[in-house]
Specification:
This protein is α+β, with helices and mostly antiparallel strands. The protein has helices at residues 3-11, 164-172, 179-193, 198-203, 212-218, 223-235, 282-286, 291-298; strands spanning 56-59, 62-65, 73-78, 85-90, 96-101, 106-110, 116-127, 130-141, 195-196, 220-221, 241-248, 251-260, 264-266, 269-272, 277-279, 304-309. Helix 2 (164-172) packs across helix 6 (223-235), helix 3 runs antiparallel to helix 6 and helix 5 crosses helix 6.
Length: 310
């Protein structure tokens, strides 16, 4: 890797990944090849998770509402007892997903590995980084549609119909705009209105979660913020989008994949010229002073290592 690329990557330092209690495998989610397509909403709408409490697992001080697991998520509800709770999910792909929920708060946790059997283990903070086991259970998940986890908000991509970012996404284009038009417009808006925040990159702490409306209003962010903002905006346009977390070279990084109906998952891509896709990585694009050099780098899949999909 050239010195210029190495220097650029150092500027793109992301957050420290959340602490996990067991080693997580690496892999990449993709469409199952079932021929299933994402649901179409007319008029367009922002999906809102619900936790009616009709079906739950666990007990005080942590309850998991699994009433809507067919929609691709569960909701973890933590009691206000002053402790942080940790929920770990793993499926057949071997990837361990770890989520932390503060005292008195709730979090939407997606089933990003798709339908199947999930092993769920829950813990409660006892002292600093020490956690004690609460309960564990296997959960059978059968998704109504395999794309739903990538259309709903979750703890990492947190948005509502009232989020300014979602309102903006719905206002940028007519409802009958094509998916490619929507993706290109959102991509161009984010990369032209958000600049890389080097101070934040140098001081970001473990456990950081993006605030998409703050990124939009301040016009600054790290690659995690870029990816989360674009993911929220595209999901609100009924375009399945994966927030991908891993490495660019040997630096922590985040990017996005999108699904185009009739074409499939487009990994790290943004535009289609009839023959090939160009790499989708909004952080690199927004901060490129050497377009030819950057396009050469982000066009090489070997430079990306995926760890988690959110």
């Amino acid at each position: 890797m050239s010195k210029r690329i190495s220097a650029l990557l150092l500027c793109l330092f992301l957050f420290c990944l959340l602490i996990v209690f067991s080693a997580a495998g690496c892999g990449q989610n993709s469409s199952s090849g079932s021929g299933e397509e994402p649901p179409v909403f007319s008029p367009l709408k922002v999906l809102v998770p619900e936790a009616p409490g009709t079906d739950t697992i666990g007990y005080s001080p942590l309850i998991l509402d699994i009433s809507n697991i067919s929609q691709g998520y569960l909701t973890a509800v933590s009691e206000s007892n002053g402790t942080t709770k940790n929920i770990q999910l793993s499926a057949d792909d071997g990837i361990v997903y770890s989520y932390f929920v503060s005292s008195g708060e709730s979090a939407v946790i997606p089933f990003t590995s798709g339908s199947g059997t999930y092993q769920i283990s829950c813990y409660e903070q006892v002292n600093g980084s020490q956690y004690a086991a609460l309960f564990a259970q296997a959960l059978e998940v059968s998704l109504e549609n395999e794309f739903l986890p990538f259309l709903y908000p979750n703890q990492y991509v947190n948005f509502t119909p009232d989020s300014e970012a979602c309102k903006l996404a719905l206002s940028l284009l007519a409802e009958d705009a094509t998916e490619q038009e929507s993706i290109d417009t959102v991509f161009q808006y984010v990369t032209q209105h958000v600049t890389y925040d080097e101070d934040k990159a140098a001081t970001v702490e473990t456990g950081y979660l993006p605030d998409i409306d703050e990124t939009l209003s301040t016009g600054k962010g790290i690659c995690f913020d870029y990816a989360a903002l674009m993911t929220a905006m595209l999901r609100s346009r009924d375009i399945p989008c994966k927030l991908q977390i891993g490495y660019a070279g040997d630096i922590k990084h985040a990017w996005i994949d999108v699904y185009i109906r009739g074409k499939g998952w487009v990994e790290q891509a943004i535009t289609y010229d009839g023959e090939k896709w160009n790499r989708m990585d909004p952080t690199f694009t927004a901060n490129s002073e050497d377009e030819e050099l950057i396009n050469s780098y982000i066009g090489d899949s070997a430079n990306y290592t995926l760890q988690f999909t959110r």
